Amino acid sequence: MSSREKILKAIRGCELENKHLPSLNFGECKQEDLLAKFSQTLAAIGGRCRKVGGVEQIDAYIQEAGSKYPCIINAVSELRGFNIIDFVNADARTLASTAIFIVRGSVAIAENGAIWVTEKNIGNRSLPFLCQHLIIVVTEEDLVVDMHDAYEKNAIDIDGYGVFIAGPSKTADIEQSLVIGAHGPLSLEVFIIESSSNKP
After folding, report:
1. Which of 25, 123, 162, 182 is most exposed, with the fewest beta carbons within 10 Å of its own?
2. Which one, of 86, 89, 64, lies nearest residue 75 by Cα?
3. CATH, residue 168
4. Which residues fall within 8 angstroms of residue 19, CB to CB, at 6 or more apart?
5. How far, in Å, CA of 147 to CA of 139, rounded?
6. Is position 3 within any domain?
7. C-alpha angle 167/195/142, rounded to 5°?
8. How many angstroms separate the first and last alpha carbons of the chain?
9. CA torsion 124→128→132→137, rounded to 10°?
10. Comparing C-alpha atoms, which of 67, 72, 96, 98 is closest to residue 83?
11. Is 148 buried (19+), middle (13-18) or exposed (0-12) by CB count in 10 A?
12. Exposed/middle/buried for 116, CB within 10 Å: 0-12, 13-18, 19+?
């Protein structure tokens, strides 16, 4: 019997005691507390959070940004200037000139400031990583406490490709000095639409 077979036989012979998973009940958290916690966490990792009353305020922001930036790609159909259809099959060279990319997020996590974005909302997988400035739109109902809640809320088996995005790109490899906008978006801004407003 080879060493490999001996090791595998020993592993198969081990019987581990079944143990119950720990409880993940962290108690109730009010919606306003979630928003404050998410905003604080996002700021700590270099992002910005802005609460708005409805999509018209985001439209006004897009219109203002349009006078400053030549290329804005919008993947949120309810917002002004929806044009992701024109870029779904675009290559990286074309997308590299994107100044602002606007996308809809599915879940925003107060624990770590991450936002779950699915491929059906992105349109083109490269855009969140090639744009200069990233804007993600969520609603207050999309806020959850932690990753456990996020996985319960997400239909990952249905969504297919998706990505958790937490803040703008950053690195601290050199002299442990944090650099924002190192190899991707220079900024991340999250618009949170109030509960009473219609979801985009």
Report:
1. 25
2. 86
3. 3.40.50.10420
4. none
5. 17
6. no
7. 40
8. 64
9. 110
10. 72
11. middle
12. buried
Q: How is residue 177 written in tokens? A: 């000095």
User: Parallel, antiparallel, or unpaired for β 143-144 and 72-74?
Assistant: unpaired
81 Rama class: left (phi>0) / alpha (psi -120 to 50) / beta: left
Q: Domain for residue 129, yes or no?
A: yes
Is 8 inside a domain boundary? Answer: no
What tens digit of pLDDT does each residue of 4-37 get? 999 998 888 888 788 887 776 655 666 668 899 9
Tokens 């203002």 belong to which residue?
64
For residue 172, the one-letter residue type is A
Query: 64 is written with which tokens?
Result: 């203002």
- Number of domains making up the chain: 1
Q: By residue range, what is the domain housing residue 131?
A: 24-193
The whole-number average pLDDT for the span 180-186 is: 84
Domain assignment present for residue 14? The answer is: no
The more confident residue out of 70 and 36 is: 36
What does the pLDDT look like over 73-120, one tens digit per residue? 999 999 989 999 999 999 999 998 999 999 999 999 999 999 999 989
Q: What are phi and psi of 168, to 5 degrees?
A: -70, 175
**pLDDT mean over 145-166:** 82
